[in-house]
Design a protein that fits this description.
Elements lengths: L2 E4 L2 E4 H21 L7 H13 L7 H36 L11 H15 L10 H25 L4 H25 L2 H11 L8 H19 L2 H7 L3 H6 L4 H23 L5 H13 L3 H25 L8 H22 L5
Antiparallel strand pairs: 1-2
């Protein structure tokens, strides 16, 4: 069994997968237990048994409300958002063969943010879409942003050079940031509060309706990307090599980019802009488990979801009864981790 090294300790890949799944389950349980109101672990079992299978009584009404209506949807949403951003980051990094690429650095996250801000500012409600207006517009905006970034990159370098993509993304981030600032400055007091609260990035005050908004997009896009793991492995050898072994590079690239943009737009539409998840988690997984996307993609889902659940617990408890925006926590945790990983990789003579 091939060994991998984690913080100086060697373990086989199967063991790492088991640890990742165990931590994911533990983080979800901890997310239900930890908060301003202490919850007995037995209450969770009773409630889930009653709500899902009709077994036994649901216990105290206030405990039921706290777990089922507040904490459980929040924890599930945090996991889905983290999984979406991490999987999108892994797809972008694999496709563009650059570990410094993520939905934020290439402007996709900013585009989704602009789409969501437009919906809030103009109070749009698309026909038939109803509550799905926000994620649909955010996804469309993220896709348009990606198209523009790649179009500018192609015009500037005659190829999809990694450095040009990142530079174009940074420029586009600045442009979109200026537009968002304009809408904030001209918004009414009510819209101003909604936009500002949303831009800080958070899963607080979210409920089952937000989970229902994100879940369909996540399931479809995640399934599509998981089936592209072989393609991403082939593309890691270069587009010419992939073409020679039978990969339709243009078609597969479009599928992967579209799916990653859908994940980003849907996640951003319900949680706001949250940085570092799509950058750090796939990079960490790849360093530990290797470059095989058959493992990298599903493990990015598990580890990314776990990371954001833990970050949300920190955000709502560290200055209790107040809360930090979850984006602040992910940046505080993610930036040092990525710096350490980058230094360790560089000192070993590898590319970041």
């Amino acid at each position: 069994m091939k060994k991998v090294e984690v913080m100086g300790l060697k373990m086989n890949k199967h063991l790492f997968v088991i640890i990742a799944i165990t931590l994911a389950v533990a983080s979800i349980i901890a997310g239900l237990l930890i908060g301003s109101v202490p919850i007995d672990p037995s209450d969770i079992g009773k409630l889930l048994g009653n709500q899902l299978f009709g077994i036994g009584s649901h216990g105290a009404t206030d405990v039921t409300a706290i777990i089922w209506e507040i904490r459980l949807p929040r924890v599930i949403l945090a996991f889905l958002v983290g999984a979406s951003l991490s999987l999108a980051g892994a797809a972008f990094q694999g496709l563009l063969r650059n570990p410094l690429v993520d939905p934020y650095t290439i402007g996709v996250s900013s585009g989704a943010s602009l789409g969501a801000v437009l919906v809030i500012f103009f109070q749009w409600q698309l026909p038939v879409m109803g509550d799905f207006t926000l994620p649909v517009v955010a996804i469309t905006a993220s896709g348009c942003t990606l198209f523009v970034v790649l179009l500018i990159t192609r015009a500037a370098s005659r190829s999809f050079a990694n450095e040009t993509i990142i530079l174009t993304g940074i420029i586009f981030n600045s442009f979109v940031g200026a537009l968002v600032t304009y809408f904030i400055a001209t918004a009414s007091s009510e819209n101003f509060r909604q936009i500002l609260f949303w831009l800080m990035g958070s899963v607080s005050m979210r409920n089952w309706s937000h989970v229902q908004l994100l879940a369909p997009f996540f399931v479809v896009a995640a399934i599509v990307l998981l089936f592209q793991s072989r393609v991403l492995n082939a593309l890691s050898l270069g587009e010419e090599s992939a073409h020679y072994i039978g990969v339709n590079v243009k078609r597969k690239r479009l599928i992967i980019l579209t799916s990653a943009a859908v994940l980003t737009g849907a996640a951003v539409s319900v949680s706001g802009a949250i940085g570092f998840v799509g950058l750090v988690i796939p990079h960490l997984v790849r360093l530990i488990i290797g470059p095989n996307h058959r493992l990298v993609l599903p493990l990015s889902i598990i580890v990314g979801g776990t990371f954001l659940v833990i970050a949300d617990m920190v955000a709502r408890t560290i200055i209790s009864p107040s809360e930090l925006p979850i984006g602040v926590v992910t940046a505080i945790i993610g930036a040092p981790i990525f710096t350490i990983l980058l230094v360790r990789q560089s000192t070993r003579g590898g590319k970041p």
